[in-house]
């Protein structure tokens, strides 16, 4: 099975712009979560989608949003970018079946740099 | 609320030596615990998980972890370090809303 894929891998944007990141989960996985990783704050949960519905949301401002499509692919959007949004954005998918429900498999991440 | 504490932001060992990375958790319910590894410029790879089936959990690449409820610990060990083990390691607990709460990470350096 192919792993979680994220596009693009690297992105450079300017303050005030918006950006959309994409994530394709492992085939058959219905849950997709997004995390932000920075040197200062570590790994922080952004949100989780399951069957096209946002099931859980972290403590991030409304500039951060996401969605999930019927094929489980997910996108996250950040509007009005700030310098502090520079980070590695990680997507993780979960099978959500039985005991394996609790496992999350991560993609390689999208490195966003805001200048 | 669940939380995870990783003791030691950096650990240095010689090649062939024992690796011990410490993780303590706080959870009001039986925890689901995980160890992930992150190599430079990559995502997180699941090393092993504890889901109450057995207290000693074996993972990939020769790593294992032991769940000790009395000590609220889930330390990661490997009998003999390889140069390829150099990476950052994260302990995580699943919280009641199914998201992962991560520790701050431990960077493992392996000396030749």
Question: What does this entry look like structurally?
Answer:
The complex is a heterodimer of chains A (115) and B (112). Helix content of chain A is 0%, strand content 52%. Chain A is an all-beta fold and 115 residues long. In chain A, strands 2, 4, 5, 6, 9, 10 and 11 form a 7-stranded mixed β-sheet that branches. Chain A has a 4-stranded antiparallel β-sheet with strand order 1-3-8-7, with no helix packed on it. With 112 residues, chain B is an all-beta fold. In chain B, strands 2, 4, 5, 9, 10 and 11 form a 6-stranded mixed β-sheet that branches. Chain B has a 5-stranded antiparallel β-sheet with strand order 1-3-8-7-6, with no helix packed on it. Chain B is globular. The A-B interface holds A 4, 6, 31, 33, 35, 42-43, 45, 48, 55-56, 58, 90, 92, 99, 101-109, 111 and B 32, 34, 36, 41-46, 49, 51, 53, 90, 94, 97-105.
How is this fold's topology laid out?
The complex is a heterodimer of chains A (115) and B (112).
Chain A: E1 5-7, E2 10-13, E3 19-24, E4 31-38, E5 42-50, E6 53-57, E7 64-68, E8 74-78, E9 87-94, E10 105-106, E11 110-114
Parallel strand pairs in A: 2-11
Antiparallel strand pairs in A: 1-3, 3-8, 4-5, 4-9, 5-6, 7-8, 9-10, 9-11
Chain B: E1 3-7, E2 10-14, E3 19-26, E4 33-38, E5 44-50, E6 56-58, E7 64-68, E8 73-78, E9 87-94, E10 100-102, E11 106-111
Parallel strand pairs in B: 2-11
Antiparallel strand pairs in B: 1-3, 3-8, 4-5, 4-9, 6-7, 7-8, 9-10, 9-11
Instruction: Kindly provide the radius of gyration of chain A, computed on alpha-carbon positions and rounded to a whole number of angstroms.
Output: 14 Å
Count of individual beta strands of chain A: 11
Number of helical stretches of at least 4 residues of chain B: 0
Work out the oligomeric state of the chains in this entry.
heterodimer
Average predicted local confidence, pLDDT of chain B: 92
Judging from the principal axes of the Cα atoms, what is the shape of chain A? globular
- Structural class by helix and strand composition of chain A: mainly beta
Rough shape of chain B? Answer: globular
- Poorly predicted runs of chain B: none
Q: Provide the residue-averaged pLDDT of chain A.
A: 93
Helix percent of chain A reads under 10%
Q: In sequence order, what are the helices and strands of chain A, one letter per element? A: EEEEEEEEEEE
- Strand share of the residues of chain A? over 45%
List low-pLDDT spans of chain A: none
Quick one: which chains have the greatest interface? A-B, 25 and 23 residues
Major sheet attributes of chain B: 6 strands, mixed
What gyration radius of chain B follows from the Cα positions, in whole Å? 13 Å
Distance between the termini of chain B: 41 Å
Name the structural class of chain B.
Answer: mainly beta
């Amino acid at each position: 099975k192919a792993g979680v894929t994220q596009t693009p891998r690297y992105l450079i944007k300017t303050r005030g712009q918006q950006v959309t990141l994409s994530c394709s989960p492992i085939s058959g996985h219905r849950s997709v979560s997004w995390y932000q990783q920075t040197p200062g704050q570590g790994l922080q949960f952004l949100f989780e989608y399951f069957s096209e519905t946002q099931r859980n949301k972290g403590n991030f401002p409304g500039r951060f949003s996401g969605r999930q499509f019927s094929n489980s692919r997910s996108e996250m959007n950040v509007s009005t970018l700030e310098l502090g949004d520079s980070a590695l954005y990680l997507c993780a998918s979960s099978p959500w079946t039985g005991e394996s429900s609790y496992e999350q498999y991560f993609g390689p991440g999208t490195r966003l740099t805001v200048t | 609320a669940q939380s995870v504490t990783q003791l030691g932001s950096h650990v240095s060992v010689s090649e062939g030596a024992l690796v011990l990375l410490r993780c303590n958790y706080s959870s009001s319910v039986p925890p689901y615990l995980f160890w992930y590894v992150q190599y430079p410029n990559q995502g997180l790879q699941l090393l092993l998980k504890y889901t109450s089936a057995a207290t000693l959990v074996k993972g990939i690449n020769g790593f294992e972890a032991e769940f000790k409820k009395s000590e609220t610990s889930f330390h990661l060990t490997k009998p003999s370090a390889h140069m390829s083990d150099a990476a950052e390691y994260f302990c995580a607990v699943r919280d009641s809303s199914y998201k992962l709460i991560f520790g701050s990470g431990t960077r493992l350096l392996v000396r030749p």
